[in-house]
Amino acid sequence: MSDLELRGVTKAYGNVEVIKGIDLKVEDGDFCVFVGPSGCGKSTLLRMISGLEPISGGDVCIGGDVVNDLGPADRGLAMVFQSYALYPHMTVRQNLSFGLENLRASKAEITERVTATAQMLQIEMLLDRRPKDLSGGQRQRVAIGRAVVREPQIFLFDEPLSNLDAELRVEMRGEISRLHRRLNNTMIYVTHDQVEAMTMADKIAVLRDGRLEQFGRPLDLYNTPDNIFVAGFIGSPKMNFFPGRVEAGGLRLETGTVVALPPGKFMLNEGEQVTLGIRPNGMQPAETGLPLTVSGVERLGGESYLYGTASDGTAVTVHCAGQTKIEPGTQIALTLETGEAHVFSTQSGQSLLRKGA
Amino acid sequence: MTAFLTRTRGRKRLHWTDWMAYAYLTLGVLLMFGPVLWLVLSSFKTERELQNYPPRLLPYVQKMETVPGYDKPLPIYKVTAGPLAGQEVAQIRRIGLISQVVKPSDPKTVLKVPFKDRKAVEHVALATSNYSKLFERFNFFRFFYNSTFITVMATLITLLVNSMAAFALSKYQFRGRGLVMALIIGTLMIPPTVVLVPLFLIVRDFGMIDSLWGVIIPGAATPTGVFLLRQYMLTIPDEILDAARMDKASEWKIYWRIILPLSAPAIAVLAILSIMWRWNDFLWPLIALQKQENFTLQLALNSFRGEFTTDWASLLAMTVLTLVPIVVVFAFLQKYIATGIASTGGK
């Protein structure tokens, strides 16, 4: 069993608490992505799981055992670093076998495992080169190979694709996903890129300021975000937020527009300050509705994005299928598909969705 | 390489800046190689030639000839004036202003020639006896062994100790790290002569006076070396160390298999510096070593200089031999000096 459980894990540097108590359970074989803006503590959390960073409080359990006091090597983990961290003075073969030598594996076993890993990652022809003679993508493969060859219980990835160019990143994304299906190991992957999170993850943990904001399947996070932060972070382009207040079961936005909401879906108190969240594809240009001054148009061919401001100054992004004819500088109106709407308490930021509704 | 060396500013003719550059470089070559060349040529001169005034560049020796009836070879002179003018004669002895000479063809007849009317017959030859004498009369190999032993052992210990200190000071976070570093750098401000007496007392109490280890140990840890290596090691990314830790490498293994190989350029620089320091070191060995059999080359050189007489011929020959190892080390390692200093600057 190689599930991972964090129980009230905290980390403090002096008086500064960077991880403020995280509870999380990653099931065996899951691909779990930690995502969050930079500085949210996701890399620190990963290093705490790896054992490279000591924890200040709580428990880290791997396969049911508390591993707080075990060193990084004894936790049965392998890590792929953002900068790859290959040993520059060793050949690819030596890079792959270094860990096995330290585990006192026999020569024959080392050769066998290195060859098998190299074949799987298609780096056999690179085995006698040094890292400086490899391209970015090849280095990435070697770094992954160095983790794979040790057959760890859990793989840790620390923003492994952030140094690659866009095209290679998409390719490696697919490759890591295939690797996961093939090895069926537990993998924990840190990224700040929500697209990577959405495309690769079985489960996503959204972190902010050292706290876990939401943990769940990618589409659950997309469809039912727990709070404004998750709603804004997951999904691209960002969700639009309109401030308003509850009035007669519906919402009166700051722009003056009244929006009717599906009855019973949200827990609303008359007069409460709330924020309406609606994704760019939850709005369509129409004859009447929410007025919008268009300031920019992006035509991508198959789809278009309108950027503009509502009358209260809120920035709004609208997704249109096909090639729109709307020009920048014009005034348009938007209809809102209230079935797609999210409502958050402005004060707490929490979703007002009625549970089980 | 040739294209690079012969590159000029002027296309066909030499531009005036080319002349200036060549003049400047020639001056530099003369200034730097002149003394060395003079030393090497002088080391092949006889003691007599060394005393000669005005000095001459090339080593000359006087022609000697064995004449029947005389045990030792006699110096040959050419007579410049008088009845014997133009003939070569062998001088038997000189009395006041008169030389007693014989013709090699007629050794029985002793002739008298005024001292100023004769000129030594000389030719260019290397007085290699200066060198062979070092091996026959002095225990050159003993001194050479002592110097080599001290240089090699001290350099190895210096590299080991300094790189370990630099590793700790660059890659571990601990309370007082800055203070330790400041103390190490601070010792650079203390002139070595100030600590000479306390150092002597300590080394004496350890019973290392008049042993080679008494020279090796006190200077093993150098602030310059620690600083040089630390600054270089700071440029090694911490992620590589983390990766090694994930690979179950012990801290010693990280130092030995990761840090040391990656610091090779800086270590090469320190090795060269240490070899030069130790080989040329004079003051501390002079104090720590007393028996002649423990002398280093530098001390042996010093012993040629007496209060009243100085054996210049031996001194110069030995100086040349002392220089050779350093020159060889430099010739083979100089590319590391350049790359090492260049890459310590920034990656």
From TrEMBL, chain A:
**Residues annotated as domain ABC transporter:** 4-234
MF term (GO), any? ATP hydrolysis activity
Which keywords fit this entry according to its UniProt record?
Answer: ATP-binding, Cell inner membrane, Cell membrane, Membrane, Nucleotide-binding, Transport
Question: Listed GO cellular component terms?
Answer: ATP-binding cassette (ABC) transporter complex, substrate-binding subunit-containing; maltose transport complex
Q: Which Pfam families match?
A: ABC_tran, OB_MalK
Q: Which domain of life does this protein belong to?
A: Bacteria
Q: Which InterPro entries did the record assign? A: AAA+_ATPase (IPR003593), ABC_transporter-like_ATP-bd (IPR003439), ABC_transporter-like_CS (IPR017871), ABC_transpr_MalK-like (IPR015855), ABC_transpr_MalK/UgpC-like (IPR047641), Mo/tungstate-bd_C_term_dom (IPR008995), NA-bd_OB-fold (IPR012340), OB_MalK-like (IPR040582)
The family classification in the record reads: Belongs to the ABC transporter superfamily.
What protein name applies here?
Sugar ABC transporter ATP-binding protein
Q: What is the lineage of its organism?
A: Bacteria, Pseudomonadati, Pseudomonadota, Alphaproteobacteria, Rhodobacterales
From TrEMBL, chain B:
- Which cell locations does it reside in? Cell membrane
> Coiled-coil ranges per the record?
none
Q: Where is the ABC transmembrane type-1 domain?
A: 144-333
Keywords from UniProt, A to Z, are: Cell membrane, Membrane, Transmembrane, Transmembrane helix, Transport
The membrane-topology field of this record reads: Multi-pass membrane protein
Q: Where are the transmembrane segments?
A: 21-41, 143-167, 179-203, 215-233, 254-277, 312-333
- Where primarily located? membrane
Q: Name one GO cellular component term.
A: plasma membrane
A Gene Ontology biological process term: transmembrane transport
Q: What is this protein called?
A: ABC transporter permease
Write down the species.
Thioclava dalianensis
